[in-house]
Amino acid sequence: MNQLKDSQNNSKQAFKDIIRTYETMAPKKAAPIITEMNDEDAVEILSSMKAATLAKVLEQMTTADAARLTKKLTEQSS
Question: If 0-12 CB within 10 Å is exposed, 13-18 middle and 19+ buried, where does residue 62 land?
Answer without folding.
Answer: exposed
